[in-house]
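Colleagues,

Please find the record for the two-part complex below.
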Amino acid sequence: MNYDIYLVGVGGQGVLTMSNILAEAALRKAIPVNVFPIKGMAQRGGFVKAQVRLGREVTGPNIPEKGADLVVGMELSESLKAIRFIKPGKDFVLLGHLWLPTAVMLGKAPYPELDQVQEEVKAAGAHLLYLDPEEIPLHKGAPVPANIFVMGAVLGHTKLGQIFDPHEVSNIIRQRWKTGAKRNATAFQAGLEVSG
Amino acid sequence: MKTKILTGNEALAFGALRAGAKVLTGYPGTPSTGALTTLMTMPVVKDRHIEWSTNEKVAFEIAAGASWADQRALCAMKMSGLNVAYDSVISIAYSGCNGGLVIYVADDPGASAGMAEQDSRGFALMSDLPMLEPSSVAETYQLIQVAFDLSEQIGSPIFFRLVTAIANSHAMVEIEEPLPPLKREPILEKDTTKYTKAGSAISMTQHRDLIARLEKAEYIIREWGLNRLQLAQEPGGLGIIASGVAASYLEEGFEIAPQYGVKSEDLSVLRVATPNPLPSDEVRDLFQHCEALLILEELEPHIERGVYLEAHKWGYEGKIIGKLDGTFSRVGEYDVSHVVKGMGVALDIDIPEGCFQGRSEAEALAAQRPITLCAGCPHRGTFMAINQAIRKSRFNKDEVMVTGDIGCTILGMNPPFDTVWNEVAMGASIGLAQGYVHGGVETPVIATIGDSTFFHAGIPSLINAVQHQVPLTLIIMDNGWTSMTGMQANPGTSKEFQPPGNRRVDIAKIIPALNVDQFYIVDPFDLEDTTATILKCMHLPGVKVVLARQECAIQAQRRDVMPGLVHVIPENCNLCQLCIIHTGCPAIDVGEETIIINPILCYGCGLCADVCHREAIVKE
């Protein structure tokens, strides 16, 4: 089964980490995988995307427009850049996180509204799963990592959960970060159980 | 043999080790950087030498010297680096080599790293050097080993090309244990007919030998079956020639094609792994077997032009679909849509327009997100100081040329600084500045450059400015690391962070030796002094050099080093946002009643406190 995932966000949100977790999950199940990350030039706060292609023995790194079985948008505005890649009828997971560029913060440039983005996703024929950043739980008073929360949500609410056992992915996360295991487990579980 | 997830760069590095490479050099540059980075993090192996060199030309000459001493050597660079190294590459192409010598060049179709979208295959054509190019990460590991063998078989350097989509992709690769460098006694061969170009007889003989080596390569490449040709059982169908990463989209295309009545068993396919030399025998086989040809290659139509020549030579009259007929663009990356669209054009099948056209309207609504400096970046202080110095001078901002250079220092072109006017190539800021002066610009001219870029190609240009007494101010922004490519050590990196056995070369000692008119060292976190120094230089005659020195904040923070603690005094803040307007620092947010400084991001440089008029931000 071929399954193509397009992840977008800004540098510092853990988009590339998510793609690496998926690569590891694929390796463990011996599913052929190609992960193509683009992180631009900035250390933090620049546009980041990763394309994860599962299933084909030989696969090109780029997903064509209207080709992704799943889009994960970690930031409201950047999610717009992924809309042309979603296959109609497939899952579009949108975390409504805002990362405002300086010009927007100063009121000199516009920023899209949530309902605008939601309408665009629907106009592309996608099935939208909106994740309210407010639903990201706290662990010992601090918010848990949003990317792990979204990973949980993706595995609990999209077809990807039929390819990878959520339990197995949660194991990968636990083995990868020994410190903060509880925090990550809280994040992942909250994502799994989020009301779609 | 074990299966691992590797990037293309890592696969290339592991393959080079498997091939017994002894000397591996390069200069960092996206997307090629990962190859040497991988090797640097591995345990040190006796007799193997790995280094980041001062620039790509130096890196290549080191690799070539090792090859002449009969060792296997690899040299890694991005496409822009090959432009720098090329002077030596072409000379050594004429001389040939002894130990396997492989030049790894990474091109960037799609320009995700923001430089020229050049196609380095053109360099292989011009220098008559073979070039190998895999179509996947897994193939990279195997083919780089073949490159070393081929290099020794024909006695010539070999190009090895990756594109970003392969160099930076992660995929499963079956790899074997790395091998130690091949045990070979170094040779010292004295042969001026091979190792010099003294006289036209020598040079023309070398030219003949060069051409003969490429012909030999073509023969061996055919023997080894590097270019894979599959002919359809029945003649008369479509032939597809796909090169490098473009070939990786074929399988996906063949999954879709039956929807449009194309049967994959009717297709003949040539997967090209050697863009130079063109596999002309296989192309001829396609001419005999196919009524139309589809050519899939990113960027320039190099293979396509070769196919046209062969078609003319052999009287082939079928259709040739590619870029030269207008079907595909020479700009950007390919994906499966090119395979399907190309088959449609070649076979006169109507592929609906919207098939690979997503909803592009959405993207127009996305906020602009210009890349900016990291929180705590010392360059922020330098750009703020340049802007303040210009404001305090008798000139307007649009009268003071500030030339820019490659690396993090180019981020001064973006808001909120809008300081830097141009970006050309490593070291070019200093030459451009001189040109503006000679061009008659009488207002102050400022050149900006980073430390690694200065070592790479800035020094000759500064020497030129001194010799010709060109009035300009050069600001060297020395953060101690080659930062934009991920913090590699360079000659100026502090002694304690130099690789073992290396010696630091201090820019502060180089500049006085060049006999410049004025030389100042400033701390870019001291905004007042940096501003005053730049302002003074703008009005002084001669060549002035300002060395703005402060370590890259990312690196310092990794060692928990911080210059101070900055916090907000809420009752003093009236949300005027001057701090954001001047610094554009990602650590500052606008809160409900005051600005908020994110303690995780803040490095404590205090530049925001310097521009606050109300003492609402305090540095301790």
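Chain A touches chain B through 59 residues (CB under 8 Å).

Comments are welcome before we finalize the supplementary table.
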